[in-house]
Amino acid sequence: MPRPHQALHSALVLDRYPDLSYHVHMPQIDDSEELRLYRKWEAAIGYRIFAKMRWGQLGDGHITARDPILTDHFWVLAHGVPFWAATIDNLSLVGPNGHVVAGPTTGGINAAAYNIHWPILDARPDVVSAAHTHTPFGTPWSANVRPFQAITQESCVFVFDQSIYTGEDLEVATLDGGHAIARAMADSTLCILRNHGLLTAGSSPGAAVGAFVMAERVAEAHVKAVDPTPVSDEAAKDVAVSLAVADVGWRVFQWLARDLVPDPSAVLG
């Protein structure tokens, strides 16, 4: 008997990426079961992108995907699975009480994933996915407790769409910490977590991952630039209008996926 994802495979064409052009946008999927599968597929590819960038090797970080059927539940990689081995079959479905209700159950999940992501998804009906891990530039930049400035083209994507969480609870060991992050994040795409790193939200796992990688590149520019001079707010807004379209993160994800995970069927299990 074929697995559920195999039965839906031909409809969603998950063994290859769509043609990438200016006219390709995030797909609109009406069937809830297919949308569930698509979100898991993007999340698994997102984990593999992080792995290729050598992120998450210490067990740090998480990418979540809201379930479209049980909308107060989310999918996340099971604890103990390396990011490079992520598939749709080793994602766990987590309920609002933090319990795993589907997928691998023996190893549990990263506790911080629940403490951080569930409050964000609960507070933001517009958010499908959140992404966070500790990175070479995002984490050190966060120790400055300062926002990004318009010092590069990509920076302009976030200059008017960012927030800072100033709490010192670096492990985020409780839901209270996650709720505090959600309040600080408000409706922004990027939240800089003090002394901790970057956190992004998106309308799909691909959008959240793409935005996260862009934010890390922006953090790198901020760490490396010596006494940078930002462009004016007016110039930054012009760039933001051009780049910060609703699916810019998803488009960046498409480029990353093709380069770093050339065979998307690898995540089908």
Mean pLDDT over the full residue set = 92
Fraction of residues in helices?
40-55%
Structural class: alpha+beta
> Any idea what the radius of gyration is?
18 Å
**Largest β sheet strand count, sense and barrel closure:** 8 strands, mixed
Helix count, per DSSP? Answer: 9
The run of helices and strands is: HHEEEEHEHHEHEEHHH
Q: Which ranges are low-confidence, i.e. pLDDT below 50, for 5 or more consecutive residues?
A: 1-10
Which overall shape is indicated by the principal axes computed on the Cα atoms?
globular
Task: Please report which band the strand proportion falls in: under 5%, 5-15%, 15-25%, 25-35%, 35-45% or over 45%.
Answer: 5-15%
Q: Enumerate the strands of the largest sheet in spatial order, edge to edge or round the barrel.
A: 4-3-2-1-5-8-7-6
Question: Can you offer a commentary on this structure?
Answer:
The chain is an alpha+beta fold and 269 residues long. The chain contains nine helices and eight strands. It has an eight-stranded mixed sheet with strand order 4-3-2-1-5-8-7-6, with helices on both faces. Helix 2 (32-52) crosses helix 9 (248-260) and helix 3 (111-123) crosses helix 6 (175-185). Residues 1-10 have low confidence and may be disordered.
Q: How are the SSEs ordered, and which strands pair?
A:
Layout: H1 4-12, H2 32-52, E1 62-66, E2 74-77, E3 91-94, E4 100-102, H3 111-123, E5 129-133, H4 138-142, H5 155-159, E6 162-165, H6 175-185, E7 190-193, E8 197-202, H7 205-224, H8 233-243, H9 248-260
Parallel strand pairs: 6-7
Antiparallel strand pairs: 1-2, 1-5, 2-3, 3-4, 5-8, 7-8
